């Protein structure tokens, strides 16, 4: 093995999120493998990355299906695997297993709560025993909420969290749409935390939420339940945690129509048939790959309301370009892992793995977000 070979690998790199991650790694001067199943797609995607970057990037294309035999020779070369291929619950298991076997830190951009719970239960201890990081959802959803929540939890005695993601001009990719529909479409796959136990959200109900600094209420959905309830279930400070997402009333109302239709069509279907149906619906909703979001259009507010027996605290995290920020989170995580700046091993949110204050300071300097008061 050449000592100058890349130590970071992006799997599923030709997609929307993969290109965003690659661009941010290139800006930091971090070489990487640009990996996926189809060489032609990878070549075309890497050309897009180079055009956006404005220069050649230090990347090597690697073709591999998500099977043990094809992944292991690649994973044996690297220290960090960034998995951006979804729906994760459907295709992610071989990637996870090979990362552990090859002793790689594993991060991904999932938004799928059941995937997050599954890898925690099956692999959390194993990664910790090897001093490796297992950090799903290194992405806008759901790292932004974890960062905001950690700020609120600095106040002693806070034990209950309610979070709202409010997004202007949301532009979900095809893979994201499929991932979230498969969760939103199943009543038993999206949960909040109540008295340290998981409780299922109904899948066909919207909620009215209040967002500080905005004049109107918003309609919101559980949108898969989020990963914050999973991370905080292992945290002795927290006994209650709810997360809702507001994309804009028109989009939320349209999704509820789709879910009601799904509920009618899915009656009596097996789990496999239900997931095939959500994929079919996702294909029908897809409008192609969106352009990267821009600061004047892509804005978000993540609000964390914290309450305890003797006090409360609220933190509003203002954020620009949440989709591009997903690429930045992965690049920041990879940079810190390669630099030996990991604070906690095993199954962890990025906020705990690298320190929420440290991450917020870095992202603030890059122009993405505000700092806590």
Question: What's the architecture of the largest domain, going by CATH?
Answer: 2-Layer Sandwich
- Work out the helix count: 14
CATH class of the largest domain: Alpha Beta
CATH superfamily placement of the largest domain: Dihydrodipicolinate Reductase, domain 2
Radius of gyration: 20 Å
Shape: globular
Low-confidence stretches: none
Estimate what percentage of residues fall within beta strands: 15-25%
* Spatial arrangement of strands, main beta sheet: 3-2-1-4-5-6-15
Number of domains: 2
Examine the coordinates and then state which fold CATH places here, giving the name of the CATH topology of the largest domain. Answer: Dihydrodipicolinate Reductase, domain 2
Main sheet specs: 7 strands, parallel
Tell me roughly what share of residues is in helical segments: 40-55%
Structural class assignment:
alpha/beta
- Strands, count: 15
What is the end-to-end distance? 48 Å
Order of helices and strands: EHEHEHEHHEHEHEHEEEEHEHHEEHEHH
Q: Roughly what is the average pLDDT, rounded to an integer?
A: 92
Write up this protein.
It is a single chain. Helix 1 crosses helix 2 and helix 7 (140-152) packs across helix 14 (356-365). The chain has 373 residues and is of the alpha/beta class. The longest helix is centred in the last third of the chain and has 18 residues, at 249-266. It has a seven-stranded parallel beta sheet with strand order 3-2-1-4-5-6-15, sandwiched between helices. A four-stranded mixed beta sheet has the order 12-7-13-14. It has 14 helices and 15 strands. It has two domains: 8-139 and 323-355, NAD(P)-binding Rossmann-like Domain (Rossmann fold, 3-Layer(aba) Sandwich), CATH 3.40.50.720; 140-322, Dihydrodipicolinate Reductase, domain 2, CATH 3.30.360.10. 43% of the residues lie in helices and 21% in strands.
